[in-house]
Amino acid sequence: MSIETNLWLIRHAPVDGPKGVIHGPDAPAVLGNQAALAALKARLPQGALAVCSPARRTRETAAALGLAAAQNAAFREQDFGAWTGRRHNDLVAELGEAYQAFWRSPASNRPPGGESFVDQIARAEQGLASLPAGDAVLVVHSGTIRAVLALALELQADSALRFVIDPLSLTRIDRLAKGWRVIAVNQQP
After folding, report:
1. CA–CA distance from 186 to each of 73, 85, 97, 127 (Å)?
2. Which of 74, 161, 162, 186 makes the best surface tag, with the fewest CB within 10 Å?
């Protein structure tokens, strides 16, 4: 019996909302790119376990891919607390240096009432521990995928934030008996 878990990490479709906003979990997805959705769906393993975060955009993306995904809060996006729903430009104008100081060390800093990226990595690790062996398709967020990459590659949190994870991209990582194997990052459909 294999103990290997093959992860098919998909970032949700683009958010249907204004640019420059820290979107909350209720933000919907833009699902108009049917060609990209079909191409991505064709690459996914049949019969795989499907999981998504509780956010509306991940649930909608999973459904558009034909997945009956179970929700797992361990795979939520980073919680930006009081900043959720706010525009970056407004936060800069309101908070000035305090807001800019957060972004000088975004991996370890916590927004008011929120969590750090380091916290998100720990949460994602708990979620991964709950996954059985076999194929698992996770429809999640860019931060969640970066968190899994940090774990797989044993990266410092600040380094993992350097990965670009585009909407509807596929990242393939395998959890092996002794370690990890990264197959692809940010592949376009």
Report:
1. 23, 26, 33, 21
2. 162
- Whole-number Å distance between alpha carbons of 188 and 39: 9
3-state class of 142 per DSSP? helix
At which residue do the structure tokens 């807001």 appear?
99
> How many residues does the structure list for the chain?
189
Residue type, 105: S
**DSSP symbols for 64-121:** HTT--PEE-GGGPPP--GGGTT-BHHHHHHHHTHHHHHHHHSTTT---TTS--HHHHH
Q: Which residue has the tokens 């891919």?
A: 65
Provide the token pair at 169: 């991209």
Query: Concatenated DSSP letters for 175-186?
Result: EETTEEEEEEEE
Instruction: Return the domain boundaries, the chain.
Output: 5-187
pLDDT digits (tens, 9 = 90+) for 145-177: 999 999 999 999 999 999 999 999 999 999 999
Distance CA 159, CA 35 (A): 33
Q: CA-to-CA distance for 125 and 150, rounded, in angstroms? A: 10
Query: Per residue in 85-125, pLDDT tens?
Result: 999 999 999 999 999 999 999 999 999 999 999 999 999 99
Close Cβ partners of 23 (under 8 Å, ≥ 6 residues apart): 15, 17, 57, 84, 85
